Automatic annotation (TrEMBL):
<feature type="domain" description="Dipicolinate synthase subunit A N-terminal">
    <location>
        <begin position="2"/>
        <end position="93"/>
    </location>
</feature>
<dbReference type="Pfam" id="PF02826">
    <property type="entry name" value="2-Hacid_dh_C"/>
</dbReference>
<dbReference type="InterPro" id="IPR036291">
    <property type="entry name" value="NAD(P)-bd_dom_sf"/>
</dbReference>
<protein>
    <recommendedName>
        <fullName>Dipicolinate synthase subunit A</fullName>
    </recommendedName>
</protein>
<dbReference type="InterPro" id="IPR006140">
    <property type="entry name" value="D-isomer_DH_NAD-bd"/>
</dbReference>
<feature type="domain" description="D-isomer specific 2-hydroxyacid dehydrogenase NAD-binding">
    <location>
        <begin position="138"/>
        <end position="228"/>
    </location>
</feature>
<dbReference type="Pfam" id="PF16924">
    <property type="entry name" value="DpaA_N"/>
</dbReference>
<dbReference type="GO" id="GO:0051287">
    <property type="term" value="F:NAD binding"/>
</dbReference>
<dbReference type="InterPro" id="IPR031629">
    <property type="entry name" value="DpaA_N"/>
</dbReference>
Amino acid sequence: MKIAVFGGDKRMLFAAKAFYDDGHEVLLTGFDSLLSLCGIRVCTVREAATECDIAVLPVRPVTDDKLFAPFAKHPISIAGTIDRIGQKPLFSGSAFLLKPYDAGEIYDYSADEIFTLRNAELTAEGAIGLILNEYEGAVYGAEILVTGYGRIGKVLSGYLRMMGAKVTVAARNPADRDMIICRGMTAADYPEINWRRYQVIVNTVPAEVIDRDAVAQMREDVFIIDLASVPGGVDVSAAKDRELTCIHALALPGKTAPLTAGIIIKDTIMNILKREELLG
């Protein structure tokens, strides 16, 4: 099978290599500074789209109507790329971003359970790395609040507890709060949070749950990380007004563990191909 990988960050380089290591012929485009990568052919968008059997776009494929390709020398039209791919099987993360571009059927690998679970582990690990590298205090004994108890919140809060932090998790679902307590942590609903108590606050909710009023109550030396996708869950302007440390940590797996993240993309796509009986 001939697989074309279009643009993206380092994750897509490692995904391309993982496909190649599995025995597939791989075309790579959007990485103009590369002359070659192992036995992978680096080529133009036109060549990749014309010759491939399946096309793979990045986890977040579009930025300002252009293919997300930070290593390309010139902007690449996402509409033109999709048009050239035509009716070939198209795999992309965040497929909803491609709706304006008249794409055909898209297989959204970022919505697949395999991807979301394994990506949550990498995101949690990356968040802990940020805390260890950027927060000036110790994790052990620190009062840490995690907002949200989805996939990332579950993994992250468990890791932090094992590291000796005093972990509180904010969750709206009463059943989630019961589970949080069963796992040896403190549970809270949002109206009852004492924001000033926490030295570190990590948001995982993709909606504003930490508003200006919450930020106003925080201690001056708080360390805030927002893991949620744009626009995030923290009122960043309020944090800036108070000169609080607030990091919007987007696409952490691509920055902290691109090799493993790339393998996860490859594994997920191969599972979808098998499930949809698209393997020749």
